[in-house]
Design goal:
Layout: H1 2-9, H2 13-20, H3 25-32, H4 38-50, E1 54-59, H5 67-84, E2 93-97, H6 108-124, E3 129-131, H7 139-152, E4 157-161, H8 167-173, E5 180-184, H9 199-215, E6 219-223, H10 227-239, E7 248-252, H11 257-265, E8 270-276, H12 281-290, H13 292-302
Parallel strand pairs: 1-2, 1-8, 2-3, 3-4, 4-5, 5-6, 6-7, 7-8
């Protein structure tokens, strides 16, 4: 119930203004968001690479219906990639892109054009792009754009949300050689007609999707902070004859940093999802909704502890 309320609040302009204006909110946001500028994002990337972690950087921003804003978001990604290029990190520092932020909601062709520009900038630095997945109404469009992008940029990845009923079929379609799939549980408030609602059912769906990806020929990117899911991942990887270099873990910036470093120290590739920018509200509220521990952290911070 609390999670559903927070997801609803993530789309509320009134709550957004209230939360954004609360002085102590920034203290909590700083745990989950790597600053507002390209330089702050770059500094975070350098620090995480020194800790033997790989990264995927997200310029924060979601659905826009303004052509200038969509173009500005695409340019922000190009600027970021150009700032990262001298570090020569290659695929160790990629970017994650929400297509709704580059025009998907009002002009799918324009969103594809912007995404192609971002992919070209990433490829110039030896890096890659992964498309974030948003609510269920965008899935078909996102997968269509993915197919178009992969014609010229075959390493383009995509996120699949396990809680959607359709996701097992999507995983089967995306499990071919060379396909990069980030498997997440799902972070949007979806109706019961299209998505599992209970935590138990979502976990079971996640394992079913994970089994499909591990048995396939692609490259699974296992986005989880759950120790039980990590154990299942290693069991399925072993059954499928995969070594740590044949898949990777992905975790959010600021969450379970000790576990991230422990997995990397054990020889696994661990990619940290690093958001930056001033449009942090929607991202922040979904992080609170996902895990009760995040809400507890928020309340402790408000209490100055």
């Amino acid at each position: 119930m609390v999670g559903q309320l927070l997801l609803a609040a993530s789309r509320s302009g009134l709550v957004r203004r209230s939360v954004s204006g609360f002085p102590l909110t920034r203290k909590v946001v700083d745990r989950f968001v790597a600053g507002e500028t390209v330089q702050e994002a770059r500094d975070t990337v350098v620090r995480l690479r020194e800790a033997k972690l790989t990264v995927t950087v997200d310029h924060l921003g979601e659905e826009t219906r303004d052509a200038d804003a969509a173009a500005a978001t695409a340019q922000a990604y190009v600027t970021l990639l150009e700032a990262l290029r001298p570090l020569r990190l290659g695929g160790a520092a990629e970017v994650s892109v929400k297509l709704s932020a580059v025009g998907q909601a009002f002009d799918e062709g324009k969103a594809l054009e912007h995404a192609r520009r971002i992919c070209a900038a990433a490829e110039a630095g030896g890096s890659t792009v992964t498309l974030d997945m948003e609510d269920h109404t965008t899935v078909d469009s996102t997968l269509k754009i993915l197919r178009e992008l992969r014609a010229d940029h075959p390493s383009t990845g995509v996120a699949i949300q396990a809680y959607l009923f359709r996701s097992e079929d999507d995983c089967r379609e995306l499990s071919a050689a060379g396909s990069r799939v980030r498997l997440v549980k799902g972070a949007y408030r979806e109706p019961a007609a299209v998505a599992h609602q209970s935590r138990t059912d979502v976990d079971k769906a996640y394992v079913r999707c994970l089994r499909i990806l591990m048995a396939g020929k692609g490259y699974p990117m296992v986005a989880t902070h759950d120790d039980r899911m990590i154990s299942i991942t290693e069991l399925l990887a072993d059954r499928s004859g995969r070594t740590p270099g044949d898949y990777e873990y992905q975790m959010l910036y600021g969450i379970r940093t000790d576990r991230q470093e422990a997995l990397a120290g054990a020889g696994h590739t661990v990619r940290v999802y690093v958001p930056y920018g001033d449009d942090w509200y929607g991202y922040f509220m979904r992080r609170l909704a996902e895990r009760p521990a995040n809400i507890a952290f928020f309340l402790r911070a408000l209490g100055g502890k």
